[in-house]
Amino acid sequence: MTAWHDSALVALIAGVLGLLIVASFIGWSLSRLTLSESGRATVNNINARIRAWWVMAIVFVIAVATGGVGSILLFAVLSFLALREFVTLAPTSRADHRALFWCFFIVTPLQYYLVWTGWYDLFVKLIPVYVSIFLAVRVVLAGDTGRFLERVATMQWGLMICVYFVSYVPALLTLHIPSYAHQNARLVFFLVAVVQLSDVLQYVWGKSLGKHRIAPAISPNKTWEGFLGGVLSATAIGTAIWWATPFTPLQAALMAFVVTLMGFSGGLIMSAIKRDRRVKDFGALIEGHGGILDRIDSLCFAAPVFFHLTRYFFAAG
Amino acid sequence: MMSAALAVASRLVCGANVEWRCPSRSAGQRIYFANHASHLDFIVIWAALPSDRRGLARPVAGQDYWERGPVRWYFSRRVFNAVLIERNTAGTQDVAAAARRSIQRMSDEMGARHSLIVFPEGTRSVTGEIASFKSGLYHLARLRPDAELVPVHLENLNRILPKGESLPVPMLSRLVFGAPLAVVETESKEEFLTRARVALMQLGAVS
Asked: Does B15 lie at the interface with A, CB-CB under 8 angstroms?
């Protein structure tokens, strides 16, 4: 339990705990004050979301606190569950069965094994290079040419989003940042907290002030007010916890800003997929939120960019 | 132990989203009948039942398949307590008599406590379409008028573990338990089988 010796990490965890307590209190007050029928439905949904946040926060804190193994295991499981949701909606054919088996039971564990060993060169190439070739070969050998390109491309995209991108989160632990040794767990915390708070704050700003739709054809609930309010306030929070990162306050602000923009784009992209497949959510695993992929969509697209920016500008070797 | 682990594994691979349109517990015995596309069908239904009812629900399965090899034998006998019946294979001298014996066995094995899980199409579908029902369901229902006939619609299992594959691909599946049916005195065997099949198919219609 290395985390408890890291006072900055303990402070961050205490902050999350405080936020959840405040949120639960507000949710409880709302449920006592709201009387109208439609208002009740919204408040019940908010309270379900807050309850689910408690569970997610506790799981995340345990994973981060147990160091590398816990984080790698958590994100490996998230990848597995997200890929399961993605493949359910994918237009696969009977001939893709063996290739899909490889995706779940060989490629996913291998990618996280590479995170564990810190083998960076193969970690970045495995899925985009070797697996993309292998999958196409495996599918073509199965002999079904119907919608071949669509099937192979969808499978590859599923692996990229659900496995490759997600594995960048625990890969932050493998970066060697000068005078930041053994503190990388805080980077994981910074990324996940800023992205998820940005989602929550976009929802809060949108619900309270939202008027002008930002992408009506894709996601009718997203508004300019929610987007600007969420991005700016999450960036402010990211800046305020600069002391836990290897960044200066200005660098932390820029990082948080980029990460929230990536997160917003990720949310839009995944909404477009859902709209095309005519579903509201990818799954129903998390009460009030939908599936795993509905919760981590923004993280998927923020993690690789955050990792590479940090690695390029701050890591040694 | 084994059954709890299996229920978790089933949820991990099939992520079943379960909808009950009838009470999940009943005082009496039940005959669950479902569409059949995969070897996992029975396990998914069984895992969706309340944990105190799982031990009482027994699958009806083909003896020729489930007695081949020690692993299948162990699962069918020890874990699932399956009712294994002879399937009508070509060359059997008296098909009708064998079928009658099988139905009688199912009814006997239900005894006073057990429920059954049956697949009235008789075999796994390759396309995901629901084939016409064999008459066994009708005869069993006549023998056991006390039992509720509960239709169970399974979705996506044909993609998770299709016929001919031995390793599953994890996906989300959906199970709907429908309102119980009973044989009406005035209806013929064919009318009942059609009605039961339509009831099952309607559970799969997108609402």
From this structure: yes
**Residue-wise pLDDT tens digits, B151-183:** 999 999 989 998 888 899 999 999 999 999 988
Phi, psi for residue B154 in degrees, rounded to 5: -110, 135
Residues B171, A104: C-beta atoms closer than 8 Å? no
Q: Give Cβ neighbours of residue A129 (< 8 Å, ≥ 6 apart).
A: none
- The Cα–Cα gap between A55 and A270 comes to 23
Closest CA to A189 of A2, A55, A8: A8
Judge: B171–A283 Cβ closer than 8 Å, yes or no: no
Question: Domain B15-204 belongs to what architecture?
Answer: 3-Layer(aba) Sandwich (3.40)
Q: What's the complex ipTM?
A: 0.83
Higher pLDDT, B26 or A112: A112
The Cα–Cα gap between A288 and A230 comes to: 20
Task: Give the SS3 label for residue A182.
Answer: coil
Whole-number pLDDT of residue B16: 82
Contact partners, residue A120, CB within 8 Å, separation at least 6:
A174
Q: What φ, ψ does residue A39 adopt, rounded to 5°?
A: -60, -40
- Determine whether the interchain pair B172/A80 forms a contact, defined as Cβ–Cβ distance below 8 Å: no
Residue A125 has pLDDT above 90, yes or no: yes
Å from A100 to nearest chain B CA? 6
Which of A84, A105, A284 faces B171 most closely, judged by CB atoms?
Answer: A84
| Beta carbons of A100 and B17 less than 8 Å apart | no
* Alpha carbon distance A111, B70 (integer Å): 36
Edge-first strand order for the sheet with B30-34 is: B17-20, B174-177, B148-155, B30-34, B115-118, B57-62, B83-85
Estimate the crossing angle of helix A185-209 against helix A249-277, to 10 degrees: 60
- What pLDDT is attached to residue A1? 44
A243-247, B52-56, B111-115: which range is least confident on average?
B52-56
Residues A11-36: pLDDT tens digits? 988 999 999 999 999 989 888 887 77
Q: B83-85 and B57-62 as β-strands: parallel, antiparallel, unpaired?
A: parallel
Burial A126-158 (b: 16+ CB within 10 A, else e): bbeeebbebbbebbeebeeeeeeeebbebbbeb
Task: List Cβ neighbours of B63 (8 Å cut-off, separation of 6 or more).
Answer: B84, B85, B86, B87
Domain boundaries, chain B: 15-204
| Residue B196: closest CA among B147, B151, B136 | B151
Of B159, B181, B186, B155, nearest in space to B170 by CA: B159
Query: Which residues on chain A are in Cβ contact (under 8 Å) with B170?
Result: 80, 83-84, 87, 104
Q: Which residues of B touch A102 (CB under 8 A)?
A: none
Residues of B in contact with A88 (CB under 8 A): 156, 171-172
CB-nearest partner of A101 from B15, B17, B169:
B169
